Predict the structure.
Amino acid sequence: MKALHGKVALVTGGSRGLGREMVRAFAQHGADVVIASRRLDACERLAAEVEHEYGCAALPVACNVSDWAQCDALVDAAHERFGRVDVLVNNAGLSPLYPSVDAVSEPLWDKVIAVNLKGPFRLTAALGTRMAAAGGGSIINISSVGAIRPTADIIPYAAAKAGLNALTEGFAKALAPSVRVNAVMAGRFRTDIAKAWGDPEAVERLARETIALERVGEPAEIVGAALYFASPASSYCTGAILRLDGGTP
């Protein structure tokens, strides 16, 4: 239960959903944590929670990863507090709804690419370079099965996540041999985003009909993959893209 003892883990989009689950898991397994999201108050609440429950140190930071300067400020804040970061999880993401492809505006396109692709690039480049200089680390990109199975309603998001898969393999080479870079290509998970899926009964029925495990994932089910990539258990694994989608066709 202390596989990450003495490590520092930074999670973007860390105050809710899959990010929250990973923050809690890293803290439970001995890491100090940096919790980053746009809402500082939510980060502060989770920081207080994990410090109380697990006795770790937690740094809440407000950061919009679509902004290059804020990414750099996040890196500086983490290093000022802890002196290093051993694990980076690029989890922040968004996929706004749109009625049709011709209704996708330039601002929507730019926002989706910035949050899902530009931010992870900058954080991986900036933190990964520092990790390599310090002797090593692990970077985990939270991608989506949409990157290889895009549907009509997530085309900008799918394109960004396909780019994130490419970043994973490219940075695995660029930061080798001391920094490992891997990705979790997630399917449907029952986070707060599930509210946008429509009728819950219809969603469950579709899951039973189309997903091998006949259900959507629960947020805590991201933890096993995250701990594997963050810990020495994956010491010979880099450039890997793991599908975690319950067997989505």
